Amino acid sequence: MVLGSYRALPLPMLGKQFRTLCTACLRLSWLFALLLPLGARADGLLVFAAASLKPALDGILATPDVRALGKIEVSYAASSQLARQIDAGAPAALFISADEEWMDWLAKRKRIVGQTRIDLLGNALVLIAPRDSSVQVALHPGVDLAAALGRDGRLALAEPGSVPAGKYAKAALLELGAWSGVSQRLVAADNVRAALNFVVRGEAPLGIVYRSDAVSEPAVRMVAGFAADSHPPIVYPAAIIAGHDSPTARALLAALRTPAQQALFRAKGFDAPPAQLRSTSQP
Description:
The chain is α/β, with parallel strands linked by helices. The protein has two domains: 33-122 and 234-281, D-Maltodextrin-Binding Protein, domain 2; 125-230, 3-Layer(aba) Sandwich (D-Maltodextrin-Binding Protein, domain 2), CATH 3.40.190. It contains 13 helices and ten strands. The strands form two sheets. A five-stranded mixed beta sheet has the order 2-1-3-10-4. Strands 7-6-8-5-9 form a five-stranded mixed beta sheet, sandwiched between helices. Mean pLDDT is 86; it is low at 1-41 and 278-283.
């Protein structure tokens, strides 16, 4: 008998009961991972928030006015991931998405309290490089981003098929006629903060993130900003989740809209929602 070597049997050759047990274990492990996100607690209010909100929202939750509301926990991830978890029954009380599409998706499934939905924030899209990089790029139609990446460099961005920051980035690059030149040279990250970290670590010479991400990270610099009309408006909608409405959840949502907390968001690189910016700019 040789202990250091074995041949695994294919699953169909194993007993039916064993296969059933394996399937059940896998489902249970997935369910626990889904319903118990990092930071969740039964005795507090759980917020699901887009990853890009972390630097600003962590600071806001530490202010006396918000701390007075009680224990608040936050799980940060891509809006797409969080929306799917909410749809599957994750116990979040408040969801702040980085785009309208995923909030609309939940609304169609009756997962949010519709009357509580608001447009909380806006943002901008920027091209970043490591702080010590000397690269210069002008974001005009026909820009050759592939040349700016160098021979082997890749462009870091959030996954462009589902993550809001990645979708905005792809739309902007398509508008500039630059997508085809870089689409095979991407580092597609799970969320925008992960894309930021590829540039922070020097693993990508350029990245596309939100302005708020660049403002929060001293290890990168903003090379250029994308025109607001080169991509869909960046809107952060927020809403209370159906089945988890409470006075505390409503108080937190109201607190995030106060001038004091909105000023903290602005200091971290966020804007007012696009519609509000348009209304204030009109004579």
